């Protein structure tokens, strides 16, 4: 297996919108830096915005909330709730359905997000709670 032998610098100039529906500045990933087992991104939740419900397929996520206050609903029916504030470290296990909401209507929330999968963006899957009628979403 060929290993990277150089330090790489990534300066994302624009964000991309992922399955979660949030702006994401991808820093380190397989695509940007040739990483093999880690990714690191800056995610922004605009004022009052809510992510799409989703799961991370097969990888762990560690979050450090830089700015703001975020409510995360999680669980099979998104029935559990946790509120995190700037300075909190947050762990999301693989396969746990969740949805984040910025509690501020005037300021964005920003977080550094690390994952133990260099191709994690390809493994973010939309989530519909059991019994949710897809016709209701249309």
| Strand content range | 35-45%
How many domain modules?
1
General shape: globular
> CATH top level?
Mainly Beta
Largest sheet: 6 strands, antiparallel
Strand order of the largest sheet: 1-2-3-10-5-8
Write the H/E string, N to C: EEHEEEEEEEEEH
CATH topology: Jelly Rolls
| Corresponding CATH superfamily | Jelly Rolls
Number of strands: 11
Please bin the fraction of helical residues.
Answer: under 10%
**Helix segment count?**
2
- By CATH, the architecture is named Sandwich
Which structural class should the secondary elements be placed in? mainly beta
Kindly summarize this structure in a few lines.
The chain is mainly β.
Q: How would you explain this protein's 3D organization?
A:
With 138 residues, this protein is mostly beta strands. It has one domain (16-128): Jelly Rolls. The chain contains 2 helices and 11 strands, in the order ββαβββββββββα. The protein has helices at 30-33, 134-137; strands at 16-17, 23-28, 39-45, 54-56, 61-67, 69-74, 80-85, 89-92, 98-102, 109-115, 124-126. It has a 6-stranded antiparallel β-sheet with strand order 1-2-3-10-5-8. It has a 3-stranded antiparallel β-sheet with strand order 7-6-9, with no helix packed on it. Strands 4-11 form a two-stranded antiparallel sheet. A hairpin with a 5-residue loop joins strand 6 (69-74) and strand 7. The longest helix has 4 residues, at 30-33. It is globular and about 45 Å long. The N and C termini lie far apart (47 Å).
């Amino acid at each position: 297996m060929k290993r990277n032998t150089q330090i790489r610098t990534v300066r994302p100039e624009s964000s991309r919108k992922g399955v979660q529906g949030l702006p994401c500045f991808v820093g380190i990933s397989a695509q940007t830096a040739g990483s093999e087992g880690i990714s690191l991104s800056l995610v922004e939740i605009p004022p009052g915005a809510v992510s799409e419900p989703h799961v991370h397929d097969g990888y762990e996520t560690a979050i450090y909330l830089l700015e703001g206050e975020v409510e995360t609903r999680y669980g099979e029916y998104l029935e559990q709730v946790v509120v995190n504030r700037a300075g909190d470290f947050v762990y999301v296990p693989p396969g746990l359905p969740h949805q984040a909401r910025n509690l501020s209507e005037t300021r964005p929330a920003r977080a550094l997000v690390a994952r133990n999968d260099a191709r994690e963006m390809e493994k973010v899957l939309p989530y519909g709670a059991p019994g949710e009628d897809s016709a209701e979403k249309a």
